[in-house]
Specification:
This protein is α+β, with helices and mostly antiparallel strands. It is built from 4 helices and 7 strands; from the N terminus they run αβββββββααα. The protein has a single domain (about 10-170), classed as Peptide deformylase (Peptide Deformylase), CATH 3.90.45. It has helices spanning about 25-40, 130-145, 155-160, 165-170; strands spanning about 45, 55-60, 75-85, 90-100, 100-110, 115-120, 125-130. A 5-stranded antiparallel sheet has the order 1-2-3-6-7, with helices on both faces. A two-stranded antiparallel sheet has the order 4-5. It is globular, with a radius of gyration of 16 Å.
């Protein structure tokens, strides 16, 4: 089932998220719905707060970007209860967008490498290091679990310059090709 994506201004996007257990109700169905929703919206990642759930869960499938970013080997993943436990000191700025902040793309500086401790869809524990663009996607989705959106990471001057657009999204004055709330 394709779910509505919550836009900037919805309180759940700023809420503290909670860990879940393997007994979380209908987890397999939720994951399937999240992937369907992400694909339908032409996204490469989707966090639970973006569909109205304040839980520590996000999905990624960056396969469509594999040609441009060779570091994306196995690009489809489920991250349950993730924690970034390390990151590189080296950073890079790159333009980002977000399904919850439609129509806005800004350069965001992030570490080029992150190490993440997480559980997959079968609650198998992993500690994995991600590099390059895949690391960027992981950090972007992780930010949603921490109550942040990518525009929080742009300079105050840039935020001021896009302020009217951000306000319009919060007021629901935005057109999307996907279902929103």
């Amino acid at each position: 089932m394709i779910l509505p994506i919550y836009l900037l201004g919805q309180p759940v996007l700023r809420k503290e998220t909670e860990n879940i257990t393997a007994e979380y109700p209908n987890l397999a169905e939720l994951l399937d719905n999240m992937f369907q929703t992400m694909y339908n919206s032409d996204g490469v990642g989707l966090a639970a707060p973006q569909i109205g759930l304040a839980i520590r869960l996000f999905v990624i499938d960056a396969t469509p970007m594999k040609e441009d970013f060779p570091e994306i080997e196995t690009a489809k993943r489920v991250f349950i209860n993730p924690e970034i436990i390390d990151h590189s000191e080296e950073t890079i700025a790159y333009e980002e967008g977000c399904l919850s902040v439609p129509g806005i793309h800004e350069k965001v500086t992030r570490p080029t490498e992150v190490t993440v401790h997480y559980f997959d869809e079968n609650f198998v524990e992993h500690t994995e290091t991600f590099k390059g663009f895949f690391a960027r996607i992981v950090q972007h989705e992780y930010d949603h679990l921490e109550g942040h959106v990518f525009t929080d990471r742009v300079s105050p001057l840039r935020r001021q310059m896009i302020g009217t657009k951000l306000q319009n999204i919060q007021k629901g004055k935005v057109r999307c090709a996907y279902k929103t709330k």
